[in-house]
Write a structure and sequence with these properties.
504 residues, mainly alpha, Serine Threonine Protein Phosphatase 5, Tetratricopeptide repeat, 20 helices, 4% strand, disordered N terminus
């Protein structure tokens, strides 16, 4: 990328500049950390929560143009994800922005917050948010700077070493286990500065355990014993039990900036243009929902030019398309600007439905998670349909009758093979992970589902192989060359086809 965030994950001065661009006055307070007041610390915490969701840069380029198109939720004629082509700026977007904003903000906050009982809940919440960010980073790239990241604040480490993904994952699980246990409802938190749960410690505990469930299941292919251990631990400690527990971040419609939806704001303002968008729903996604009479289709999609959201009118663009069939972009489905693509549409960071699908998969494997795969699967589908209520009532929500018809017509394959059950579960998860392309990309690599037909475009860089990772920020070759080279020696060449540790 354009070296926009050179070494921003560890240089304290850059953190101060980043913060100053978002919160007037922080630059002066950060000159004297001891002078930071409680309201300032709370503001820093709020900004960290916002950054966990990513910003326009990483979401537009890394999520919408790469990950979500690789897994065929969306498509575009020249999209790097659709055609598996390398774009240095787009590929590096998540790397630069995560270290430069999200992690930088958290490390800066932790550097000025005294480790006291009064601050323990804030500290534990920061540990949980760090896991969200680092998991996305390591799942996308493989080895990344982890243990030495942020040491510029107190350790004078400005060229952090890359850590193996195995070591990172072991620590992510430890962090979630410890942080979730240490959260204490009897101690202060940050009040309404917590945009996630308004300082409800019980829900934060469920978040830590639900994220542990996700992290643990990611190891199912490379270390099934450890995956089982921590999946069962997460369940025993208590995970999401309803849509009320889902992690939903609300946004404002404007002005453009930190508080707007990081996916919709750039999509609507820069690309949609009354149906002239270059990014469309994929044929894979639309056909699946149309062919199964999925009631969610009217909520997800519409023809922006006409406002038509009727399922029969929806048409997806094939990921191998070289032109719009018929020559008219307006005939292809856009995300619905009345619902999921509203400028102020909330972001579903982690859902109850995802947790239910994780438990369904665990039950299929015979792990001790207290219920049947069928029950968890049905709960997940129902939860995935009902959570769409967060996008408002301009489009009729999925009714109980519609859910009953759907689940009766397409029941869980209780008598099927393990592979058939897992495919059914992951395909439903792929739907609910819409707009969370990074996570859908990880789950596809872990499971091989949903089954996708590779694209073999002459402009591609993988010879028709679906990518297994994204390529690092190439500014690392300038600013952290020795550690970068050591990482690719262990992991493999810095290519989209190189498999990361848990994907071997």
């Amino acid at each position: 990328m354009k070296n926009r965030y050179i070494k921003i994950f560890c240089v304290a001065i850059v953190g101060a500049l980043t913060l100053a661009s978002c919160d007037k006055g922080f630059e002066e307070m950060n000159k004297n950390p001891n002078a930071l007041t409680d309201p300032a610390v709370k503001s820093m915490f709020t900004l960290a929560e916002i950054y966990v969701d990513g910003q326009d840069f990483s979401n537009t380029r890394g999520n919408n143009l790469y990950a979500a198109q690789i897994v065929q939720q969306f498509s575009s004629l020249g999209g790097p994800g659709s055609k598996y082509t390398y774009s240095s700026e787009y590929s590096a977007a998540l790397f630069g922005e995560t270290y430069g904003k999200g992690l930088n903000q958290i490390f800066q906050l932790l550097s000025v917050v005294e480790d006291t009982p009064e601050n323990t809940n804030m500290i534990q919440a920061c540990r949980i948010m760090k896991v969200f960010l680092f998991q996305k980073l390591t799942d996308t790239y493989g080895e990344v700077p982890y243990f030495e990241a942020g040491k510029g604040y107190n350790g004078n480490v400005f060229s952090p070493k890359y850590d193996t993904q195995e070591a990172i994952y072991n620590d992510l699980l430890k962090e979630l286990d410890e942080a979730g246990t240490a959260l204490d409802a009897g101690k202060p938190f940050v009040g309404n500065a917590d945009l996630y749960y308004q300082s409800d410690v019980a829900r934060w505990k469920k978040l830590a355990n639900s994220l542990m469930l996700r992290v643990a299941m990611r190891l199912s292919k490379v270390n099934p014993a450890k995956a089982k251990e921590f999946v069962e631990k997460a369940y025993a400690k208590g995970v999401f039990t309803s849509n009320d527990d889902s992690l939903v971040l609300k946004h404002d419609a404007g002005p453009a900036g930190v508080k707007t939806n990081p996916i919709t704001s750039s999509w609507v303002r820069n690309d949609l243009n009354g149906g002239e968008s270059n990014i469309k729903f994929s044929k894979t996604f639309i056909d699946l929902l149309k062919n199964t009479n999925d009631p969610r289709l009217r909520i997800y999609a519409k023809l922006e030019a006409t406002g038509d959201n009727s399922p029969a009118s929806q048409q997806g663009l094939a990921n191998d398309a070289k032109e719009f069939p018929g020559g008219d972009k307006k005939l292809f489905s856009d995300p619905n600007t009345s619902t999921v693509l509203r400028l102020d549409a909330p972001t579903l960071i982690m859902s109850y439905a995802e947790v239910q699908f994780l438990l369904a998969e665990a039950a299929v494997k015979g792990w001790n998670v207290g219920g049947s795969a069928q029950t968890y699967y049905e709960n997940g589908v129902r939860g995935a349909m009902n959570i769409l209520a967060i996008f408002g009532d301009k489009v009729p929500l999925v009714s109980p009758a519609e859910y009953n018809t759907y689940i009766t017509t397409y029941p869980f394959k209780a008598g099927g093979t393990e592979a058939e059950k897992i495919e059914q579960i992951i395909t439903q998860k792929w739907i609910v992970l819409l707009f969370n392309g990074f996570e859908a990309f990880s789950e596809y690599r872990r499971t091989g589902y949903p089954v996708l037909v590779p694209v073999n475009d002459p402009t591609g860089d993988t010879k028709g192989t679906i990518p297994r990772r994204l390529i690092y920020d190439q500014s690392e070759l300038i600013t952290n060359e020795a550690n970068y080279k050591e990482a690719i020696q262990r992991q493999g060449l810095d290519l989209m086809t190189t498999r990361i540790w848990w994907d071997k």
